[in-house]
Amino acid sequence: MARDFMAVLVIDCTYKTNRFNMPLLNAIILTGMNTILPFAQVWLPGEAEPDFEWAFVQLKT
Q1: Count of the separate structural domains present in the chain
Q2: pLDDT truncated to tens, each residue of the chain (61 aa)?
Q3: Is residue 1 one of the residues assigned to a domain?
């Protein structure tokens, strides 16, 4: 069943493209039916590892 209905989570981060120079983390879902679903957008306070860990914990819950 999982093979027929697979989904992939794609996460990308852009840096210094806004006036606050805050990283923007984008997450989308690619479904097995070739559909793209926006999942989350998160403004991160910085580029340190704890900032990303916090974001991933929030996405997981």
Answers
A1: 1
A2: 445 656 888 999 999 888 889 999 999 999 888 899 999 999 999 999 999 999 999 988 8
A3: no
Of 31, 36, 34, 39, nearest to 5 by C-alpha is: 31
DSSP 32: T
Distance CA 20, CA 14 (A): 13
Does residue 39 lie within any of the structural domains?
yes
Query: C-alpha 54: how far from its chain's center?
Result: 12
Note down the domain range covering 34.
7-60
Token pair, residue 36, equals: 């793209």
